[in-house]
Design a protein that fits this description.
heterodimer; A: alpha+beta; Arc Repressor Mutant, subunit A; Glutaredoxin; 2 domains; five-stranded mixed sheet; 5 strands; 11% strand; B: alpha+beta; seven-stranded mixed sheet; six-stranded mixed sheet; 17 helices; 26% helix; elongated
């Protein structure tokens, strides 16, 4: 059996994902540094720490997730420490520490959506895209299909409770979903570049 | 209320910059801005807290210090407040409890730490803290001095309503060379995080995760390796941070703590030595806001192994014939022989190398020994290093200030003595409490070439090996005495354990040697304790006028103005003002 990293080592452990081929790997480039400095300049001098969250969003948007190297880079940029940045990264469920697939499906499982069929829908989508729902755990909230095209995550309220069940594919919200709509949606995204 | 003009308590208090606060039914006056927790503790009303520490910023996160609070009723427009016959307004109690650490006192405020509002709130807090706590007290090092244990006994409930499985977190994590972390025992007070950030200035610890999965961690690749890291073990109210050195060594309730001072540098950090029988198990810092605040450096804390080491000299030794080995001897004949031998030494060829690691009382007796023997070559071994900008003084001797005051020596003539030994001008040498082959720079060969060498030491060293007579002394843990730190504060050493074996306290050896050397009109030569010697010194040195063992107390007493300050204490004071 592979030895599990201890609770400290796990903080900077890499979680390889088939989705990585759809995102550029994290790399410190002059453009990235320039963009980071622009964010930092939005805050008063000495308050670089405030830019940690915008930088995390910036990195996640471009690279899909926050890798250990980017944690150290963000800490450096904001005059902070890796443990502080890691504290923020691990606090927000919306910040990912492993790469999602090209199309990241977020299914709401808060009460309104769960009652209106979100729960069953989650299992159905998992089946459709070839993911074992058991793979979704607290430690690994994202499960990625083996081709890296799809990933799924159960999330809290998407703020459209009146139109449940809701789900999001990347940044687009889809409401009042059912199995047929999911089939159509997956077919639509499968053909999308 | 009487119609006469009378001063209300609120006005009287305001004139002093204070406010009146009722705590558990009794009225007290506190300076404005005092934290409720500090106010309560200062009048003997204990407020339990995990996260609050007076030396760290307020977090207000543990909710253990919840107290019931009340204020005078808000007045309707156009009405004036009414006062009872004691001059106070009635208190309207708030229905919910507030935290005592993050709130400050106010005029006519009422605080209740007993009663259901308060105890029920604390019970609930403890129930939540214990839901995921492993309850491994039987094998936890903190057991016996654990706040969670103490407060559970005070406020906790006996039954456990939580039937779900507990969340697993990291256990026995090595987060630094001297500290281990158990995330499950942690109550997330973040004292360690704040200490490392605010006092040490190295933000290596942080909180990761969210909700019940919150945990203290350091980032992989970074370790808690500061020389002040072990203070987080003291700070930790539970057994989450444990000392690798003390882990599983002893149940704390078997240990006896003795307040004394650290002798590793001129700061004279106030400490407690924890012992069982004749064995020293650990050293922890003791609060003194003028010396070390609540902290101490790790290397000083861990430098106690020599006290119970096999190198300790347990009997006095004598070399009867040239070229033979040393053999154990009894004290009385040995001292008599030593005194005889010393009298035979030519005073112009005799030197004394004393130590600024000796107490004032021992130095005082040494001075008289030097006078009696007519010794002119007489000094201490200076030991200067670099200060660390925190608590470690550049002066690695604990009592240089005392040596300057009592002997008028600061080590500046030591090179002359060393040269004298080298060229053979000095034929006999008395070494008290030093290994002269290290910092003084005399070689073992040069010591062997001497006609006569008398050494008082607690452990075997190249110096004692070369000696004709070895007086088995003791370490700082085995004797009483006083030392003056770099800032000029006289502080007490207390005896934590009895002298090991046949060894005797250094002051006792010097006193006996003085008596054997000749008649001197000195009370100190017949003293039965170092306290008596201190009394005699108080009459002879202006700086020590009026100083006695009891007036020094556990906190020490400033006696000399050296102009030297302790960086960490200065920072703390400037932060306060």
């Amino acid at each position: 059996m592979k030895e599990q990293p201890d609770a400290i080592a796990a903080l900077a452990a890499t979680n390889p994902s088939p989705g990585e081929k759809f995102y550029p790997p994290f790399q410190v480039t002059p453009e990235l540094t320039k963009k980071a400095k622009e964010y930092i300049a939005m805050y008063p001098e000495g308050k670089e720490l405030s830019a940690v969250l915008p930088l995390i969003h910036m990195v996640q948007e471009k690279h899909g997730y926050i890798c250990p190297e980017s944690v150290i880079w963000i800490a450096d940029m904001c005059n902070s420490t890796p443990i502080h940045v890691q504290g923020i990264v691990s606090f927000y469920p919306g910040i990912r520490t492993s790469c999602p697939g090209k199309w990241h499906i977020r299914v709401c499982h808060t009460i309104a959506c769960a009652l209106s069929g979100g729960e069953e829908l989650l299992a159905y989508i998992c089946e459709k895209i070839g993911i074992n729902p058991q793979a979704l755990t607290n430690e690994h909230p994202i499960a990625v299909s083996s081709d890296g095209l799809w990933s799924i995550e159960a999330v809290e309220c998407l703020a459209a409770c009146g139109f449940g069940p809701n789900l999001m594919v990347n940044d687009a919200l889809y409401s009042q979903m059912d199995r047929a709509k999911v089939d159509a949606l997956i077919a639509q995204y499968s053909n999308k570049a | 209320m009487s119609t006469e003009q009378q001063i209300l308590p609120k006005d009287a208090a305001a004139a002093e910059g204070k406010v009146n606060v009722q705590i558990n039914g009794t009225w007290y006056r506190f300076p404005k801005g005092t934290r409720i927790a500090d106010a309560c503790n200062s009048v003997g009303v204990h407020v339990p807290c995990f996260c609050y520490h007076p030396k760290l910023s307020v977090a207000g996160s543990c909710r253990m210090c919840l107290v019931e609070q009340g204020m005078p009723p808000r007045l309707a427009p156009g009405t004036t407040p009414t006062y009872n016959e004691d001059g106070y307004q009635t208190i309207q109690w708030m229905p919910r409890a507030i935290v005592a650490c993050a709130n400050t006192v106010a005029e006519n405020m009422g605080i209740r730490t007993t009663g259901t509002v308060c105890t029920e709130a604390r019970r609930a807090v403890l129930e939540f803290l214990l839901t995921n706590h492993p309850l491994d007290c039987p094998i936890c090092d903190q057991a016996g001095e654990c706040k969670l244990q103490e407060y559970t006994a005070d406020y906790g409930q006996l039954t456990h309503r939580f039937t779900e499985s507990k969340i697993k977190k990291g256990k026995n994590l090595s987060i630094g060379p001297r500290v281990n972390l158990d995330q499950e025992r942690c109550v997330l007070c973040r004292r360690c995080v704040r200490f490392m950030k605010e006092v040490v200035g190295e933000e290596v610890l942080g909180v990761v995760g969210r909700g019940a999965r919150n945990a203290i961690a350091c980032y992989p690749g970074k370790t808690l390796d500061s020389n002040y890291s072990m203070n987080v073990v003291d700070l930790c109210p539970v057994g989450a941070m444990t000392s690798k050195d003390f882990r599983f060594k002893m149940r704390v309730w078997f240990l006896k703590s003795t307040p004394t001072i650290d002798v590793n540098c001129g700061t004279g950090t106030n400490i407690n030595i924890w012992t069982r029988g004749q064995q020293v198990y650990r050293i922890t810092p003791r609060q003194n806001d003028e010396v070390n605040s609540c902290w101490m450096p790790d290397d000083h804390r861990l430098n106690y192994q020599y006290i119970n080491a096999p190198e300790r000299l347990l009997t006095p030794l004598i070399r009867t014939d040239e070229g033979t080995g040393q053999r154990p001897a009894s004290w009385e004949p040995l001292l008599r022989t030593a005194a005889e031998q010393l009298r035979r030494c030519k005073s112009s060829e005799l030197a004394i190398i004393a130590s600024a690691r000796l107490t004032n009382e021992e130095l005082y007796l040494t001075r008289h020994l030097a006078d009696l023997l007519g010794v002119k070559f007489f000094d201490i071994v200076p030991r200067m290093g670099e200060d660390d900008g925190m608590l470690i003084s550049a002066d690695r001797n604990p009592n240089t200030t005392g040596a300057k005051l009592i002997l008028g020596k600061d080590g500046s003539t030591l090179p002359d003595i060393v040269r004298g030994v080298k060229i053979g001008k000095i034929r006999s040498l008395i070494v008290l409490g030093e290994d002269v082959t290290t910092d003084a720079g005399i070689t073992a060969e040069q010591l062997h070439d001497l006609d006569y060498l008398l050494v008082m030491a607690h452990s075997e060293t190249p110096t004692t090996q070369a000696a004709d007579v070895v007086l088995a002394g003791v370490t700082f843990a085995e004797k009483y005495g006083t030392m003056i730190n770099v800032t000029g504060r006289i502080q007490r050493l207390n005896r934590a354990i009895e002298p090991l074996g046949e060894a005797r306290a250094d002051w006792d050896i010097l006193r006996a040697l003085l008596q054997e050397c000749g008649e001197i009109p000195l009370k100190a030569a017949r003293a039965t304790s170092p306290m008596e010697i201190l009394d005699e010194m108080a009459g002879q040195y202006d700086a020590l006028a009026g100083v006695s063992w009891s007036s020094i107390g556990n906190a020490g007493l400033p006696v000399v103005d050296t102009g030297v300050t302790i960086p960490l204490i200065e920072r703390e004071k400037s932060k306060k003002s």
